[in-house]
Structure formats: C-alpha cells, structure tokens
Amino acid sequence: MAKKHVLFISSSDNTFSKSRTALSYLFESALSDPALSELSNDISYEMLDLRYDLSTKKKTDEAVKAFRNADGLVLASPVFNWSVSDKLFHFLNLAIDSEDNKNFVPVMRILGAGSTSSVFADESLNRALMLEFNAIIVGKPCIIVEESFGREDKHSLNEVAKTRLAVSFSELLRIVTIQKLD
Q: Dihedral sign, CA of 60, 143, 83, 152?
C-alpha cells in the first residue's frame, strides 16, 4: 500500500511569526512524536515554505505538484485585516485546478493572530477551499496568539497551544488514514 502524504504550508514572511512557529512545532512533532507515529506509520510529511518555494518557475511547479498530490494539508498563515495572507491566496489560486485536484482533502488551519476574536479570519479561505477544492475543513482553526507562548521563552508554545494543535492534527490524520487511495 502506498504512503499517504501530508503537506505543511507556511505563508508567513516573518521567520518568528506565530503561525510559522506553530507549524514548525507541529511538523517536528509529526516527524518525531511516538504518539503521532501510531496514527501515521503510512504517512509521509513535507514542509512547503512559500517564502522560498515559489522563487523560480521550477520550484513553483514542484510546489503546485506537491499540493495537488497531497492527501492532507496543514495551512499556516498570519492574519492581516481579518483575512489570511495574500501569499497563501495567490498560491491556492495557482495550485487549485478543478480538473487535476483530488476531492475531499482534509485541511487543518493555523492562524497567527493578534487576538482570539480572529476566529472568522479564515472564512474566505474556507469558502475557497470547500467550493474550489472540495476540501474537508478539519475543526476550528488553531488560533495562535501572544498568550500561546511561554512566559520565559517567547518562541516556545505553551501546553494549551500544543494540545490544541495535537488534537486538530490527530483529527486530520484520522481522516487521511481512512480515505481510500485514488
């Protein structure tokens, strides 16, 4: 049986952004956490950084191919003016082609925001993913705010944030593992 593939996509330009930090933590956990490996023995993981992976036509083509072949997606974006980053929307507009896409790909969202009231910031993203891509939106977005980090180390997530990410990611993995291979 072929391995399934989960693609992690970061759309922040800031190396230390909330969304990038949370996505990196989750990616590293997926690769090394024994609790997740039980769910994901037959799943491979890849990180796509939109800062670098769209710098040439060849890299862009590879990124689009990775997106179209993904069995699950974890999207991370900062919130700007009650919406996700333009970089993420531009990439999705480039990558989504209704004729070549898989249907019903589960998508988890991580939003780096100023406050938890930004919960509706991904509404336009969800609409695009569901209508153009036939995505399965996995739960509420994981909103990462200043309070999601430790008091001493502003680059380490606290246990509440880690748990929230783990619960959403486990749900994504459950959906990925029960889907039939195309």
A: negative
